[in-house]
């Protein structure tokens, strides 16, 4: 199976799955089209990572800012069907080792966190709605405030997603960007036709910086899901119903 790896520390593993492997479609999300194949893909993924689906957990994402602390006993939720997935959450975090946290995406931004001092990992789904509502900042602030994470020891991965040069947004989105809790004018550029190009990865990074996470601790993926058709599914490119996942676990 083909992965893009986040090289961070030896005690964690973190990857983004690619959309094809040896010519085979590697959709990871149940969508009612090829769910049996999705299950086979998930089982192949688990085998490749030397684990099983009972050590993986996923949510039914709905573009919220809701997040949930999970434990090893939650493993398997959302793996064999969407019906038993944690519903209405777009981020998960855990202190437990050997539990893989998933984030689904196809242009939306997956964000991984590793709080090295407290040994906590998190997986966050930040589409434009999550970004303007500052889900990454909210999860990070919670970890600092309620889990005693030192922001200087938080490491972040802003994963493959749509790049600014391809993220065209209209006034409805930009008006929400302008209402965020910090000055956002550097993160969008107006085009001649009146639309804007939005830097969602930059907005996510700024949320982390505002909480004193050091710049050197933040890794931003250079990949654009629109442009890299051989690696990623993209809803904006072709209305794809399929999803990649970005996932993280502590060894």
Automatic annotation (TrEMBL):
Keywords: Hydrolase, Metal-binding, Transferase, Zinc. This is Purine nucleoside phosphorylase. The keyword Nucleotide-binding does not apply. SUPFAM superfamilies: CNF1/YfiH-like putative cysteine hydrolases. PANTHER family: PURINE NUCLEOSIDE PHOSPHORYLASE LACC1, UNCHARACTERIZED PROTEIN YFIH. Gene3D superfamilies: CNF1/YfiH-like putative cysteine hydrolases. NCBIfam families: peptidoglycan editing factor PgeF. It catalyses: inosine + phosphate = alpha-D-ribose 1-phosphate + hypoxanthine; adenosine + phosphate = alpha-D-ribose 1-phosphate + adenine; adenosine + H2O + H(+) = inosine + NH4(+); S-methyl-5'-thioadenosine + phosphate = 5-(methylsulfanyl)-alpha-D-ribose 1-phosphate + adenine. InterPro entries: Cu_polyphenol_OxRdtase (IPR003730), Cu_polyphenol_OxRdtase_sf (IPR038371), Cytotoxic_necrot_fac-like_cat (IPR011324). It comes from Massilimicrobiota timonensis. Purine nucleoside enzyme that catalyzes the phosphorolysis of adenosine and inosine nucleosides, yielding D-ribose 1-phosphate and the respective free bases, adenine and hypoxanthine. Also catalyzes the phosphorolysis of S-methyl-5'-thioadenosine into adenine and S-methyl-5-thio-alpha-D-ribose 1-phosphate. Also has adenosine deaminase activity.
